[in-house]
Amino acid sequence: MTNTELKREHPKFSHPQSIVPGVSAGNILESNEPHGVPMKDMWSHQKDHMQLVSPLNRRKFEVLVVGTGLSAGSAAAALGELGYKVKVFTYHDSPRRAHSIAAQGGVNASRAKKVDNDSAYRHTKDTVKGGDYRCRESDCWRLANESVRVIDHMNAIGAPFAREYGGTLATRSFGGVQVSRTYYTRGQTGQQLQLSTTSALYRQIGLGNVELFAHNDLQDIIVYNDNGKKRAGGIVTRNLITGELKAFTGHAVVLGTGGYGNVYHMSTLAKNSNASAMMRAYDSGAYLASPAFVQFHPTGLPVNSDWQSKTILMSESLRNDGRIWSPKKEGDDRDPNTIPEEERDYFLERRYPAFGNLVPRDVASRAISQQINAGLGVGPLHNSVYLDFRDAIERLGKDKIRERYSNLIEMYEEAIGESAYETPMRIAPTCHFTMGGLWTDFNEMTSIDGLFAAGECSWTYHGANRLGANSLLSASVDGWFTLPFTIPNYLADHLNEEKLAEDSPEAQATLAQSQERIDRLMGVRGENPHGPSYYHRQLGDILYHGCGVSRNVEDLKEAITKIRELREDFWANVRIPGEANDMNQVLEYGLRVADYLDLGELMCVDALDRDESCGAHFREDHLTEDGEAERDDENWCFVSAWEPGANKNEFIRHAEPLYFDSIPLMTRNYK
Amino acid sequence: MKLTLEIWRQAGPTQEGHFETVQVDDASEQMSILELLDHVNEGYIERGEEPFAFASDCREGICGTCGLTVNGRPHGPGQNTPACQQRLFNFTDGQTIKLEPFRSAAYPVIKDMIVDRAALDHVMEQGGYVSMDAGTAPDADTLHVNHETSEYSLDHAACIGCGACVAACPNGAAHLFTGAKLVHLSLMPLGKEERGRRARNMVDDLEANFGHCSLYGECADVCPAGVPLTAVSAVTRERARAAFRGKDD
């Protein structure tokens, strides 16, 4: 199928003008969805019309898969099962450790076994609406339709899902949804899906179909010109034990490298999760979609000290009995128990009298962060608000509160050293998930031929806000049930073509480029030397303030200026001890921070450029009369996909217009 | 709080290692062992010196990446707690804390406190899986699993693969790790078909690369996932079952 055959009509789409200096309008992107088919049938139609590779020819193709999490690990295992030659790369020591393992709540599937009237339509609708109409509807249909066999497959390969006493699968309800479609294994669903997928990968490794390269960190993507089109031919990795750089080539490259939340320095992500593979793809010409779409969780443990390594989630359930407040007076450092009632602002109850402390996640996060930004934050760093059980204890007794929340209150006490029975907890919104990522078409191929992206490092499904328990699902659907169809479809066109040679000029040039970046970083000798974390911390502060839970034009402009200054400081002064040709964790970190600085700038550009509020992208200058997010479907019902401009501080905004068939545009309203 | 740290330095697998003494005057009781190391390392990096290499990732106790020996005990003094969750209030002001890598013949040191645990992955590659390709699974609701069985299976599937069990064992056995997988999969509806083959292949690899189990029980004492000690008996039981039965299932 060629693009022209499938060309959709784009009635009167035109790029809105950008208010950001340096941003120019690019192309209108083709999604490669089939033409003339209802959205809900597009995926099955697409599959029916794909090209196949016969079993005997599959060994002729080599596919490089970067990452071993739920999306990449499953893609590698499934392609191995089909008979392709697969090489899989991870910076971890073992494929099992990828960050999918830390997901807790569950995995959605609209299997609709019960009589609560769930269906693929409702699942699609919840996903599209939850994402505030900034995703592709056809993708969401695929997500819902394939969700059924994700559960069957995960169960078959070893995930011990919670079971009812009758022996059938148990489900639970999740936020923002009126049916029960979340499958789970206690509070460790991510662990069990990740380990089941890893075991499938182990099987393929044992059978010799997949070759594993642990301790190997992606440095660059080898992209070459193939008759005027950019095409991915391999990757360059750094062996983290020896420091050796090496080029690997193949017929296709898959990135399943996770989200970029660690750009904020403090997030719930694992310490090693990073944006580098995604940023290398972006630098090589793969468009980066909606980088400003970031989900913040309202009840994170706040940052209390400069040594704290990350933020940790506290369950939302605490908001059932805890009352959220901040002092009315700026800089009120008194013991909270001595602050009289009339000097407390129960701001959620004040602003949202109907829902009070139980407003949805994004609304709570916004309100909390507005208090903090107004100087009303509490705690040693004035960066949190109180979550107070005093009234609940008075009403229900301490025993009842202990019974409901003891594990959380203990966790809090261990981390903070205070008893929530005596002193109000302190909580703060914290970066949790990134909806933005590499732009991909309906086949999950990026704007570089042969470069595919899956899971959180790509932009699909979640629009401007992700629905709970949809992230494990999306990674599983991508890796197990999308790429095993679309990659062969791509490869079929390249039968009997030799892969790029590892000693080809293209591969060697990319290898040299990776070496140069490392040499440049190691070679910085400034007057005012600091390690990478000095810069990362500052970047995090800039982003939380300027491009955090709520955004405004002035702060975003200031953030862009500050990030550019910080980047200059970094490249003039950062100091990396040790050697490049040895295990060097500071060098690894330095390379991450260099990428975060570029990404942070782009996120602010995207947030400033997108002149509307939608989902988690909350612009204070685009509010409805009652202070809620106001979308501008007239001008901004499209996905922004970014490409670096020709010069410094220049960016090209490509656009994929979004159309909605069966889920018509409407205002998100949870009141 | 003030602490004296003795931290292991080792440039590579074949080099001699030694303890380096570091004084910390401003540690906080709420710091984890790993945050204490971050703090020490930050000082080294700001002075332009090479910090101590150690492994960690999620810092929530689920990924199994971290692992060091704290005062002679894998992960540290707290029972069934990974290093990332071991906080300093378990120690007293002025105490000396010795930090070194997991110690086991099966885990060569890569650098400082980082060890190579690939031998554990190798055991898994021999059979720690269900041989079922994507898309071929039957409806999960038609394969009934008793509620209790599923929960019991999960108790074993919960292993985080940190490898502390091996480091804690005087014999360097990986029976808790391997047994946990054998129990987990033997209880799953589709894991039963290759139960015998799995036990044969995994246990043979286990015996080639790790020590023997003589039921000390140290493994279950340090296991951050709380895998029950009974899992070790599954290794012998499942292997013997496979031998007598002589079949794949």
From TrEMBL, chain B:
Catalyzed chemical reaction(s): a quinone + succinate = fumarate + a quinol
Cofactor: how and how many bound: Binds 1 [4Fe-4S] cluster. Binds 1 [3Fe-4S] cluster.
This protein's UniProt keywords: 2Fe-2S, 3Fe-4S, 4Fe-4S, Iron, Iron-sulfur, Metal-binding, Oxidoreductase, Tricarboxylic acid cycle
E.C. designation(s): 1.3.5.1
Enzyme kind, highest EC tier: oxidoreductase
Domain named 4Fe-4S ferredoxin-type: residues: 150-179
Coiled coil residues, start to end: none
Domain 2Fe-2S ferredoxin-type: 1-103
UniProt keyword Iron present: yes
InterPro entries found in the cross-reference section: 2Fe-2S_ferredoxin-like_sf (IPR036010), 2Fe-2S_ferredoxin-type (IPR001041), 2Fe2S_fd_BS (IPR006058), 4Fe4S_Fe-S-bd (IPR017896), 4Fe4S_Fe_S_CS (IPR017900), Beta-grasp_dom_sf (IPR012675), Helical_ferredxn (IPR009051), SDH/FRD_Iron-Sulfur (IPR050573)
Cofactor(s) this protein cannot do without: [4Fe-4S] cluster; [3Fe-4S] cluster; [2Fe-2S] cluster
Keyword Nucleotide-binding applies: no
Similarity comment: Belongs to the succinate dehydrogenase/fumarate reductase iron-sulfur protein family.
PANTHER family: SUCCINATE DEHYDROGENASE (PTHR11921:SF41), SUCCINATE DEHYDROGENASE IRON-SULFUR PROTEIN (PTHR11921)
Listed name of the protein: Succinate dehydrogenase iron-sulfur subunit
Organism: Corynebacterium kefirresidentii
Organism lineage string: Bacteria, Bacillati, Actinomycetota, Actinomycetes, Mycobacteriales
